Structure formats: C-alpha cells, structure tokens
Amino acid sequence: MRFVIVTGVSGAGKSTVLKMLEDAHYFCVDNLPIPLVEKFASLMLEVHEEGVQNAALGIDARSGRSLEELAQVLDHMKEAGYDFEILFMDAEDSVLVKRYKETRRSHPLAASGRVDDGIRLERQKMEFLRKRADYIIDTTHLLTRELRQEIEKIFVNDEKFCNMMVTVLSFGFKYGIPADADLVFDVRFLPNPYYEDELRPLTGMDESVFNYVMDNETARIFANKLEDMTEFLIPKYAQEGKTSLVIAIGCTGGKHRSVTIARELYSRIARNGEYGFRLEHRDVDKDRLLKK
C-alpha cells in the first residue's frame, strides 16, 4: 500500500493534487487533525485487504498549533514501521499572491493582514516538512495538465522523479525580459528571418524559419556552447535545492530566432531523464494578436 502525505504552501496546488490522486483511485482525506494522523495510517493498513490500495492525506497550515506536533508524529510513525511519502507543493511568492487575488480568497494565516505576511509566516511553519519531503513540485510554471502528468508519473506509473523543473522560454526583448528568468541569453546576433519577405509572417515553429536560423555556423556553435553550459549548470542548481529553473532566450520580437534556439536547446537537454523539462514561447503570437 502506498501512503502519501500531501502538504505545502497554500495556493500551490495541494487540493488540486488530492483530486488528481482521488481520480487515480487513492483514498483521500484532507485537513485531518494531527493527533489522528497515525490512527489514520493504521486504519488504512487494516482496510487495505478490503480493496483500498493507496491513500493520501492532506495537511497544511490550517492545522494551527498542532502542526508543531507533526514532526514527533512522523518520527513515531517511522519508528513504528509505517511506510509513507511526503509530497510538498510549492510556488514562488509572487505567483501565490496573484492566485489569491484572482480567487479573492484570504490566506489562512494572513488574518486581516496582507497575503504576503501570511505566506511568509506559513513558509516558516512549513519549512520542517519541506526539508523532510520526498518530492517537491514547484507549480510556478506548471499548467494543470502538466501537473497531472507529474503526479501520474510519480504516484501512478512509479517513474523516477527529480524535484527540478527546467523551463526553456523564448521571448522578445521589446516586450520585456521575463521577470522569473534565472538565465537570460540574447540571440539578436544571429541572422534575422524578419528581413526575408517569405519568412517574416512565419515563426520559429515553422521549419523554414528554423532551418534558416540553424543553417549558420555561428548558430550551431552557439547552440553547442549553450548546451554545454546548461548541462553544467542545471545539476549545480539542483544541488542547491532549486526546484524551478527558467532559461530565457530572447530576440527582438520573440518570433523567429529565440523560438528557434529555444527549440534546439530543448531538443538537446530534454533527453536527460534526471530532470523535468518544458518548452514555452511567450511572445511568438504577440504581433499576430496586435494586428487583429
């Protein structure tokens, strides 16, 4: 039987994950009082023979003062031989604030104060769980379908999982550098398809544009060096405990060169099965939208 404790900061997706696990036929309970956690685990073992294969328990800051008792409860469960895993859901503070504003919900620890203060206090209270977590999923850049894929990979298909999610992001400098970028590379030195009449309305998603940019020795040398650098840096960031890394590649408008190089880099580094990878093109359709 697989017993998963789902926790993390409010707004990072804990409730969503519990619903996904429920869809995967896990028996799920949310916000159980801390003193009942071990009893719940014991009961799940008893009903395992009756058809309940897996169970998930949601725990968060709503547990209040009793949350401080959880460390002792988990230690006792380990000593008693209970086998459990901890999944910690996380996201950047700015994203958490945005989510709370969009839903107009109040943070459980903010009281009548600011959401920022509630998030800061919650991080302090939940830090011991983050340190004990077997899995950390950062939902800052994840779409719901991507989160489901990660959950299914870990808790349904039992595949290897790494806490680092790497996003290769193309963008246009004229729309601003992405605020969440960790590494930024400027590819405006490459030949620009914009000045070719037949390529101007296309994007780096079209093979004719891709081939135009990559059929250049400078582009190929840069792609090789970029691959070497990112393959060196990603494990270093992972060792420091970083769970989300954004590699931003920019050109003037974010339609041609940056999209091409982002595609090329992603195709090379995504073959590394130790980390999660996603490809995103922020501004590829901006000009088309503006013309309507």
Automatic annotation (TrEMBL):
A Pfam family assignment: RapZ-like_N
Gene3D superfamilies: P-loop containing nucleotide triphosphate hydrolases
Keywords: ATP-binding, GTP-binding, Nucleotide-binding
Domain RapZ-like N-terminal: residue ranges: 1-158
Sequence positions that bind GTP: D60, A61, R62, S63
Residues that bind ATP: G8, V9, S10, G11, A12, G13, K14, S15
Residue span(s) of domain RapZ C-terminal: 164-284
UniProt cross-references to InterPro entries, sorted A to Z: P-loop_NTPase, RapZ-like, RapZ-like_N, RapZ_C
GO MF annotation terms: ATP binding; GTP binding
PANTHER family per record: RNASE ADAPTER PROTEIN RAPZ
Descriptive protein name: RNase adapter RapZ
Organism field: Blautia segnis
Origin organism lineage: Bacteria, Bacillati, Bacillota, Clostridia, Lachnospirales
